[in-house]
Amino acid sequence: MEQQHVHIIGICGTAMASLAGLLKQRGFKVTGSDAAAYPPMSDFLASISIPVAQPYSEANLKPRPDMVVVGNAISRGNPELEYVLDERIFFRSMPDILFDLFLRTRQPLVVAGTHGKTTTTSMLAWIFQHAGKDPSFLVGGIAENFGSSFALRQGKHFIIEGDEYDTAFFDKGPKFLHYFPQAVILTSVEFDHADIYADLAAVKTAFKRLVNLVPRKGKIIAYDGNENVDECVAKAFCPVEKYGLKEGSHWQITNLQFQPERTSWHLLKEGQPWADFEFAMAGEYNVLNAAAATAMAFNFGIEPQVIAEALKSFKSVKRRLEIKAEIDGITIIDDFAHHPTAIAATLTALRVRYPGARLWAIFEPRSNTLRRKVLQKELVKSLALADEVVITPIFKPEAVPENERLTTNAVVDGVRKAGRRARELADADKIVEAAAPEMRHGDVVAILSNGGFGGIYEKLPRKLEELRGVQHS
Questions:
Q1: Do residues 448 and 363 make contact, with C-beta atoms less than 8 angstroms apart?
Q2: Per mean pLDDT, which range of 49-63, 324-338, 377-391 is the poorest?
Q3: What's the angle, vertex CA 450, arms to CA 185 and CA 174, rounded to 5?
Q4: Is 324 helix (H, G, I), strand (E, B) or coil?
Q5: 174: helix, coil or strand?
Q6: Closest CA to 279 of 321, 335, 325
Q7: Contact 362, 447 (CB under 8 A)
Q8: What gap in Å lies between CA 130 and CA 59, rounded to an integer?
Q9: Which of 164, 176, 204, 378 is the most interior residue, by most CB within 10 Å?
């Protein structure tokens, strides 16, 4: 049988690039296109020999593919989408093809929630792998233990990050409603994705629908410290196990200790001492992620000792508190910040990990939520956890209605009122020029963006080397 050709429009998103890899592993010929390819996904696609055409053009669909996967960032007016519709080329969404070709014949374990999905999914996949269960997985980032964002394996479990963002231009429901989970982890429910959800009630409805898909024989592992989560799991048809720091939770974290190089804790199961854990990661939120993954793994027959070993060797995910460079005692950290709560968790974790350091937050308002003023007050509070705050104008302001846009100068004023130094600079180049000379030994610099941020991840270390005449490590 002739090899089927699948073309992916918008291939450089993490999930889309991962789908491309899965399809290639299944024996399809895969091509893709995007407006602009940037790391880490562009490097990843090159490494598995999947060609990426840019920019979008009808020519990218010649010869005619057997099927087109339309990414959720693609809307009417895109030249390739218009050509697909005109020529009636068979097309589908990413979640739809994922279920049909990969999830239907396995047990999908879905990790959902406003925060912590990527890290928790990666942890869970690593625990299953360490336990010899040979799981398939798909995660919204490069899981460092695997060096990949996906794997297609022989085991019966498929561990997948469940995204509440919409599916495609023709399907405005959340992606995770296509996955029909055997079990779900629910880490948090907050207002996010202001471009597609009108309010918190709409977000909660989406998560309630996910909960409603879990079979009676399934399981839900739910965070105990969020009323929205409680509300979303209240009508589940399957058993729900709560995890977190609250007394009386099914899985309770106790004896939490942060040290410079490691974090350790004890887990009580139904009030009884159960097991000790440790790993190299910082931040209370990462311990919560680990507790969720632990609870799910135990429900699928993995012993506490095996879980503890896996977590001890867990290496995190790229762009999650990732150290990009250390130059002359200045530590540069990349974090995929998309929401004020995530920014606060990141900066709090860095305060604990680097006590006494001067903490910089260099922030690009890029996610659909952060470009809007709906969470402006919360954003000010989060950024004020740093000592030095530098922000850029919002990314593609024209895409956000003027009356909904974040006012960056109001954010700067708010942070200053909180007693921190803050300023707005035009772009990555201006930031590097102005801020690099002010940085000194012992500083920790958190770069907060969910995009390429004008190449600042490479430009800032290079400038610091130049200024100091050192090689970066």
A1: yes
A2: 324-338
A3: 45
A4: strand
A5: strand
A6: 321
A7: yes
A8: 45
A9: 176
Backbone φ and ψ for 85, nearest 5 degrees, come out as -70, -45
Nearest to 44 by CA among 142, 134, 163: 142
Domain positions in the chain: 5-94, 106-312, 322-468
User: Which stretches within 57-116 are classed as H helix?
Assistant: 79-87, 94-98
Separation in Å, CA 149 to CA 126, 160, 386, 435? 12, 10, 31, 33
Residue 400's identity, in one-letter code, is: V
Query: For residues 54 and 51, what is the distance between their CA atoms, to the nearest angstrom?
Result: 10
* pLDDT value of residue 473: 46
Residue 146: half-sphere exposure toward Cβ, Cα within 13 Å? 29
What residue type is assigned to position 435 of the chain? A
| % of residues, the chain, pLDDT over 70 | 99
Cα distance between residue 141 and residue 163, in whole Å: 13
For the domain covering 5-94, report its CATH number: 3.40.50.720
Length of the chain: 473
Helix (H) or strand (E) holding 392: none
Helix (H, G, I), strand (E, B) or coil at 3: coil
Are domains 5-94 and 322-468 of this chain identical in fold?
no
If you classify domain 106-312 with CATH, what class do you get? Answer: alpha beta
Give the chain's radius of gyration (CA, Å): 22
List of E strands, 123-213 = 136-143, 148-151, 157-162, 166-168, 171-174, 183-186
First and final CA of the chain: distance in angstroms? 50
Q: How many CB atoms lie within 10 A of CB 231?
A: 13
- Strands of 444-448's sheet in order across: 322-327, 330-335, 444-448, 359-363, 388-391, 421-424
d(CA 245, CA 253): 5
Contacting residues for 422 by C-beta, under 8 A, at least 6 apart = 383, 388, 389, 390, 391, 411, 412, 415, 416
- Residue 103 DSSP label: I
Task: Assign a CATH topology to domain 322-468.
Answer: Protein-Tyrosine Phosphatase; Chain A (3.90.190)
Alpha carbons within 13 angstroms on the beta-carbon side of residue 473 total 6
Q: Work out whether strand 171-174 and strand 166-168 pair parallel, antiparallel, or are unpaired.
A: antiparallel
Q: Is the N-terminal amide bond of 215 cis, ω within 30° of 0?
A: no
pLDDT digits (tens, 9 = 90+) for 410-445: 999 999 999 999 999 999 999 999 999 999 999 999
Q: How far apart, in whole angstroms, are the C-alpha atoms of residue 298 and residue 370? A: 37
The answer to whether the CB of 411 falls within 8 A of the CB of 372 is no
Say yes or no to pLDDT of 292 above 50.
Answer: yes
pTM here?
0.84
